[in-house]
Design brief:
This protein has about 325 residues and is mainly β. The strands form seven sheets. Strands 9, 10, 11, 12 and 13 form a five-stranded antiparallel β-sheet that branches. Strand 24 and strand 25 form a beta hairpin. The protein starts with 6 loop residues before the first helix and ends in a 6-residue tail after the last strand.
C-alpha cells in the first residue's frame, strides 16, 4: 500500500523549492516494483537539501540515488555485497559515504554519477562532518579517525571511545563532537586543528544506559548548549553539554527504536520502532516536537521502518518493505 499526501505537493510550491512536483509520487511508486525481499528492504535513508539528492540503502547492498530536482531520475549502484547500513552526505551534498556492518571499508560516491570516488580501509562505523571543511570523522568499532576528503587521506591516529561507536554528532560553533556507543555511554570531545592537522580531546562522558542499549541517535540543539540522545530502548534524554547533567527525559510510547531522524532547524525528532521491547510488536512512526514534547503517531507496516525528513516538502518519509509513506508535519507539531 502506498499512501502519499499529494495535496501538500501543491500547497508548498515544490518547484519553487527545487524539488520536482512529480518526484515524490514516482519515488513512492518505485518502492512497490520488486518482489525480491532483499532488493526491496530499505535499511538506510538520507536526504541532502543542498543538492536535493535522496539516497536509499538496501539489505542487498544496492544503493539507489534519486535526484529530487527531476521527475524520475534514479541511479542504482551495487555498493556493497550485503546490507548498506550507513549513509552520510559530504557537507557540499555532491558526494556521500556508505558502509556495511559486514565489510571493513567505507566508500565515497559521487551523488551525481554514482561513481566510486574512494575506498577508505578499516572503517565501517558512522561518519560525521567536523567544524573543519573537508575533514570528517569515521568510526571503526571503538576507534575514531579523521578523513580528509580533499586529499583523500585517512589520518593514522586512532582515538579510542568507551565502546563501539554507534552515533556521532558535531556542533560547529563550539567545535565539540558527541559520541554515542553500544555500551550505553555518551562522550563529548573537543575538536581542534593546527596547520591542517585535526585532533580530538575527550572532555567529559556519562553512561546513562546499560550495555547493549546502544545510542541510536545524537543531535546538538541549534544553539549548541544542549545535546539530545536516543537509546534503542526508547529512552530520549536532553543533556546540558557544559556540565553533562540531564535536563529532562522526553517520553515516547516506543520501546524498541530502529531508526532516528532529527530536523534541527525545526527541533523535530522522528522515530521508527515498536511498542514492545523486543521489536516484534505493533510498529509506529512517531514525530516529537523537542521543545514541547508533543508527539504524533502514525501506523507502520513493519518493525524495520526507516525515517528521514524532506524539509522543503514539510514531509517525513517512512520507507518500509515494498512501501513508502509520506507524513505531513507542520514546523512545530501541535
Amino acid at each position: 500500500m502506498i499512501f502519499i499526501l499529494l495535496v501538500f505537493l501543491f500547497i508548498f510550491s515544490i518547484c519553487s523549492r527545487g524539488i520536482h512536483k512529480d518526484f515524490l509520487t514516482n519515488f513512492s511508486e518505485d518502492s512497490n516494483t520488486s518482489d525480491n525481499y532483499f532488493e526491496s528492504l530499505v535499511v538506510s535513508l538520507k536526504y541532502d537539501d543542498k543538492e536535493k539528492y535522496l539516497v536509499v540503502g538496501h539489505e542487498s547492498g544496492k544503493i539507489d540515488i534519486w535526484d529530487a530536482k527531476k521527475a524520475l531520475s534514479k541511479r542504482e549502484i551495487k555498493a556493497h555485497e550485503h546490507r548498506a547500513n550507513l549513509i552520510a552526505f559530504t557537507s557540499d551534498g555532491n558526494s556521500f559515504f556508505s558502509n556495511s556492518y559486514f565489510e571493513t571499508s567505507t566508500k565515497l560516491w559521487s551523488a551525481k554519477t554514482g561513481e566510486l570516488l574512494h575506498s577508505i580501509p578499516d572503517t565501517r562505523g558512522p561518519v560525521c562532518a567536523t567544524p573543519s571543511e573537508n575533514i570528517y570523522l569515521i568510526a571503526n568499532n571503538e576507534h575514531i579517525r579523521f578523513f580528509d576528503n580533499e586529499r583523500k587521506l585517512l589520518f593514522p591516529e586512532k582515538y579510542v571511545s568507551d565502546g563501539v561507536v554507534t552515533a556521532i554528532a558535531a556542533d560547529n560553533a563550539s567545535e565539540q563532537i558527541a559520541i554515542g556507543t553500544a555500551s550505553g555511554s555518551i562522550e563529548i570531545w573537543q575538536f581542534s586543528e593546527n596547520k591542517e592537522e585535526p585532533s580530538l580531546r575527550k572532555i567529559s562522558s556519562v553512561k546513562p544506559y546499560d550495555i547493549g542499549n546502544w545510542i541510536v541517535g545524537l543531535q546538538f540543539s541549534s544553539n549548541g548548549k544542549n545535546l539530545y540522545s536516543v537509546a534503542r530502548s526508547g529512552s530520549i534524554d536532553e543533556w546540558t553539554v557544559s556540565t553533562f547533567e540531564k535536563r529532562r527525559s522526553i517520553g515516547t510510547v516506543l520501546k524498541h527504536i530502529h531508526s532516528v531522524a532529527f530536523l534541527q532547524a525545526s527541533e523535530l525528532l522522528a522515530l521508527g520502532g515498536t511498542v514492545d521491547s523486543v521489536g516484534v510488536g505493533a510498529s509506529f512512526v512517531e514525530v516529537i516536537s523537542l521543545p514541547t514534547e508533543i508527539s504524533r503517531m502514525y501506523i507502520a507496516n513493519t518493525k524495520l521502518t526507516v525515517v528521514e525528513f524532506i524539509p522543503p516538502l514539510a514531509l517525513l518519509i517512512a520507507a518500509q518493505y515494498k512501501s513508502t509513506k509520506a507524513f505531513f508535519f507542520p514546523p512545530k507539531p501541535g
